């Protein structure tokens, strides 16, 4: 069987098998890594969703910084909304329905600006380009409780209609203010003065799961084993076939031939 592995044809099959197994293992590891990421996201949500709230300046001492472990962290801040600078984020889905998120800058008592996503509204029945309503924003001082989310950055290199944007691009928003603006994260509204607004849909707890990544990772491992098993089986079958072929008769030694000739002459 090992003799066949030295032939050009089986050397080619062995090279193909090596590439095949490497690809299967790489895809399996990729799926395993995605499972680890999903488990990390679930653990982060579980740890932060019901945890006690933290003052904004304590949670984010550096306005430009944000740690992934702070996703969904509850943060409290006091001040007032800058209602004139409110914008609507386009194309946001909730329960399979497209709509807008109302994003409003919030001037804290410390003099810094922090963006708050107050919630979601559906599109208008008359036009998909407009929200069904513009929820009322508190005009006086208010105590706000939010959940941290990372800056989205610029998702589309395209200008949106007046009063609308495509993403929470905090660095771009910061250009219009002389005061400090939090550009590492913004907040998803939970309540205002302890009350949840009724004219807008605030963020509910996401439903996260691991997904099928573990089964996919195991499947790629099985595919690799099938490839190796198939290679060994084919190699063995060809080896057995070669061993069953009739072998050429061995020639008699010269002295045996001479002995037979003398016997025949006698």
Describe this structure as you would to a colleague.
The chain has 2 domains: 1-50 and 212-243; 53-192. Strands 2-4-5-8-6 form a 5-stranded mixed β-barrel. The chain is an alpha/beta fold. The protein has 5 helices and 8 strands; from the N terminus they run αβαββββββαβαα. It has helices at 8-49, 56-59, 170-174, 213-244, 254-265, and strands at residues 54-55, 74-81, 87-94, 97-108, 113-122, 142-150, 164-165, 185-192. Helices cover 36% and strands 22% of the residues. α1 packs antiparallel against α4 (213-244).
Oligomer: single chain
Counted beta strands: 8
Strand content: 15-25%
Mean pLDDT level: 88
Biggest beta sheet attributes: 5 strands, mixed, barrel
Strand order of the largest sheet: 2-4-5-8-6
Radius of gyration: 35 Å
**Uncertain residue segments:** none
Number of helices: 5
The geometry reads as rod-shaped
Tell me the number of structural domains. Answer: 2
Helix content: 25-40%
| Straight-line N-to-C gap | 49 Å
| SSE class | alpha/beta
H/E series, N to C? HEHEEEEEEHEHH
């Amino acid at each position: 069987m090992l003799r066949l592995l030295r032939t050009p044809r089986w050397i080619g099959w062995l090279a193909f098998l090596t590439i095949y197994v490497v690809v299967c293992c790489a895809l399996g590891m990729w799926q395993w890594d995605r499972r680890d990421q999903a488990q990390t996201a679930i653990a982060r949500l579980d740890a932060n969703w019901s945890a006690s709230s933290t003052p904004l300046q304590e949670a984010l001492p550096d306005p430009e910084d944000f740690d992934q472990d702070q996703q969904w962290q509850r943060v409290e801040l006091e001040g007032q909304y800058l209602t004139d600078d409110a914008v609507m984020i386009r194309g946001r889905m909730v329960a399979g329905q497209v709509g807008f998120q109302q994003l409003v800058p919030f001037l804290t008592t410390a003099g810094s600006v922090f963006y708050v996503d107050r919630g979601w509204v559906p599109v208008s029945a008359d036009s998909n380009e407009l929200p069904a309503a513009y929820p009322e924003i508190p005009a006086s001082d208010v105590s706000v409780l939010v959940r941290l989310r990372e800056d989205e950055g610029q998702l589309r290199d395209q200008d949106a209609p007046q009063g609308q944007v495509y993403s929470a691009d905090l660095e771009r928003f910061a250009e219009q203010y002389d005061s400090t603006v939090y550009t590492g994260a913004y907040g998803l509204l939970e309540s205002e003065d302890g009350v949840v607004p009724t004219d807008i849909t605030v963020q509910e707890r996401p439903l996260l799961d691991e997904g099928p990544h573990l089964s996919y990772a195991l499947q790629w491992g099985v595919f690799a084993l099938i490839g190796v098993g198939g290679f060994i089986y084919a190699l063995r079958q060809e080896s057995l076939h070669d061993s069953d072929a009739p072998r050429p008769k061995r020639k008699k030694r010269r002295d045996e031939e001479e002995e037979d000739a003398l016997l025949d002459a006698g």
